[in-house]
Structure formats: C-alpha cells, structure tokens
C-alpha cells in the first residue's frame, strides 16, 4: 500500500511538472519570438527564415511542443543563443553559487526563527514576547532586495566590513574567500526568511500550548520545558514541516533575486541576463529547474509529514484506524435480598 501511494503521488508530481512545463512553453512563445535574438538590425527575409529554421520555430506549433517534451524527457535543455553552451551544464555550474547561498541562508533562518518563535509564543503575554512578534511581522514584510541594499550601504560602503558584491574568480578553490563573499547575501535572505518562519513557529507553538494534553502534562507536575519537549514538539513539528518546505522554496527564490543585488554569478544572474538578451533556452531552463525543485520539496514534505504523524502514516500504509467497538451491555443480575437474620 505504501508503494501504491508513492506511485500515485509520483504520478501527480509528474503531471504537475508537465502542466507547468506546458504553461511555460505557451507563455514564452506568446511573449516573444526567439528568432529576433539571432538576427541583427537590417536582416533580410532570408536571414529571418534561416534563423527560424535553425531554431525549429518554422514548424507547426504541435511539432515544436512534442520536440520540447522529448528534450525534457531526455533532460536536454538545449543550448544558449548567446554563448552556444549547454543550458544544463551552465545551470550546474551556477549552482555552485546559488545552492550554497540557499542552504546557508535557510540554515541561518531556521536557527533564528525556531528559538524566536518558541520564545514569542511562551512569553506571548509579556511585552518582550509581543516585541519579538512585532519584529518578526515587520521583518517578513520588508522586501529582500531592500534589506540587501540597506546592509550594503551600512556594512560595505559605510563600515567597510564586508565586500559589496562579487564572487572569487577561482570559485570554491579558496573556500574562505568564497564564504566571506556570501556573508552579506546569506544574512540578507536569512533575516527576511527567518522573520516569516518565526511567525509560523509562534502560531504552531501557541496552538500546541492550548491543547488538553499539554494542560494534563503540566497538571502531573511536569515543567513547561519537559511537557513541551515530550508532548508538544513532535505535534508542533508536523505543521511546521510543510512550512519549512515552502520556506526553502522561498529562500531559493530569494537567493535568485538577491544575487543581482550582490553581483553573484548564480542562477539569478543567468535568468536576468537571459531575459535581457532574449536567450529563451536559458530562461526556460532556469524556470524549469526552479519549478522542478519547488515540486520536489513539496513532495518530500508530504512524505515526511506522513512518516512522522501516526494519523497520516496510517493513510500512507493504507490502514484506517477505527474506533474500538463498544462493549456489549450485559444486564446486571438483581441484588440478593438482604437477610433479616430471623430463623423460621
């Protein structure tokens, strides 16, 4: 039954990706013609026809679509119009920047959000608990690029503590220099993502603290920390897991955006340059990769939730917990008549 569920869930994942890929195929062809990226000013009709034949856009749209699907099945994202390099290879190369930036930002955001969220829920009736909650709401409302510009103005241009942008030409050959160049981008993304995540952690914790089993645990003499650790954390983790998957996706998107602020050669730079130069294969490749990543994160979060929560785990294995049947009611025997103690 577990295999059947995973098979059904995988089918839905592939269907969602196929639908997203189809929408992307249609949108890119509605927004522009890739032929104009290969021709220069003053091109003749023969030049335009040759460029269209080279790209295959002179064929019927349904032939282009099935060729597009065939390339996706074989993991072929095509070649860039500008540098004639493989889009797939270029994405893998730029992940050397985007992936560490995403993971480090997400890790720092979790380290900030979990204690802040728990503390804000625990002290929700105090002024400093309310202050933490307010700060998290403000932090989540601020655009990530604005936070990046502010940190560059203060810590780079003002105090000259960190570089304003760029990445070592030697890539990760010098890990210290590479990590140093990522400090400000990581802090920028983590502050915004951590603020959003702290609000969810606070909400989940407040919901757990109001449950009957927590009050019962406290009534048995357990301290707040012991009751929360033994009974509350596991129940609070289940809804937070889906939020973590969403936040990881959001962190990835934030990394793609913030790379432009800090002039980092990652997927964000590749996407914006591709849009500017009408390099459709590059734009299409980055968006397809991002879509696949977001869908896979949602898939993983769903499976992990079902493995942790016994109620969801039963649905994963195909079992259905049913309430025990009520015990049969047996009529009580009549009580014997009390003896008077008198002899006949």
N/C terminus separation:
74 Å
- Helix percentage range: over 70%
* Number of beta strands: 0
Q: Kindly estimate the percentage of residues that lie in beta strands according to DSSP.
A: under 5%
**H and E string:** HHHHHHHHHHHH
Overall mean confidence score, pLDDT: 82
Oligomer: single chain
**Largest sheet properties:** none
Query: Helical region count?
Result: 12
From the helix content, strand content and strand pairing, which structural class follows? mainly alpha
What are the low-pLDDT stretches, counting only 5+ consecutive residues below 50?
Answer: 321-344
* Principal-axis shape: globular
Question: How large is the radius of gyration?
Answer: 29 Å
What does this entry look like structurally?
The chain is an all-alpha fold and 344 residues long. The protein is 72% helix and 0% strand. It has helices at residues 2-31, 45-55, 61-73, 87-122, 127-141, 144-158, 175-209, 212-219, 224-261, 267-276, 280-308, 310-317. Helix 1 packs antiparallel against helix 11 (280-308) and helix 11 packs across helix 12.
Features:
single chain, 344 residues, mainly alpha, 72% helix, globular
Short characterization:
The chain is mostly helical.
How does the SSE layout of this entry go?
Elements: H1 2-31, H2 45-55, H3 61-73, H4 87-122, H5 127-141, H6 144-158, H7 175-209, H8 212-219, H9 224-261, H10 267-276, H11 280-308, H12 310-317
Helix pairs in contact: 1-11, 4-5, 4-7, 4-9, 5-7, 6-7, 6-9, 7-9, 8-9, 9-10, 9-11, 10-11, 11-12
């Amino acid at each position: 039954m577990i295999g059947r569920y995973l098979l059904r869930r995988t089918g839905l994942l592939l269907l969602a990706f196929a639908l997203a890929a189809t929408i992307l195929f249609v949108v890119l062809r509605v927004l522009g013609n890739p032929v104009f990226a290969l021709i220069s000013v003053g091109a003749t009709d023969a030049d335009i026809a040759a460029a269209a034949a080279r790209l295959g856009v002179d064929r019927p749209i349904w032939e282009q679509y099935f060729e597009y699907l065939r390339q996706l099945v074989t993991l072929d994202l095509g070649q860039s119009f500008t540098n004639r390099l493989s889009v797939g290879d270029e994405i893998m190369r730029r992940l050397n920047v985007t992936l560490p930036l995403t993971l480090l930002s997400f890790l720092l955001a979790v380290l900030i959000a979990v204690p802040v969220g728990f503390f804000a829920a625990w002290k929700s009736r105090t002024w400093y608990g309310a202050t933490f909650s307010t700060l998290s709401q403000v932090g989540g409302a601020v655009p990530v690029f604005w936070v990046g510009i502010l940190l560059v103005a203060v810590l780079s241009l003002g105090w000259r503590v960190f570089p304003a942008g760029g990445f070592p030409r030697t890539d990760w050959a010098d890990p210290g220099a590479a990590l140093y160049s990522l400090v400000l981008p990581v802090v920028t993304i983590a502050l915004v993502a951590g603020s959003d995540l702290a609000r969810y952690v606070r909400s989940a914790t407040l919901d757990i603290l109001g449950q009957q089993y927590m009050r019962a645990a406290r009534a048995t003499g357990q301290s707040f920390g012991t009751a929360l650790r033994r009974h509350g954390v596991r129940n609070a983790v289940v809804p937070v897991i889906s939020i973590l998957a969403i936040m990881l996706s959001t962190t990835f998107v934030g990394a793609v955006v913030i790379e432009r602020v800090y002039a980092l050669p990652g997927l964000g730079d590749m996407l914006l340059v591709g849009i500017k130069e009408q390099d459709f294969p590059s734009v299409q490749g980055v968006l397809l990769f991002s879509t696949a990543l977001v869908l896979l994160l949602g898939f993983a979060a769903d499976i992990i939730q079902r493995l942790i929560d016994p109620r969801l785990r039963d649905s994963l294995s195909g079992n259905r917990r049913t309430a025990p049947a009520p015990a049969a009611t047996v009529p009580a025997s009549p009580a014997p008549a009390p003896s008077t103690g008198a002899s006949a």
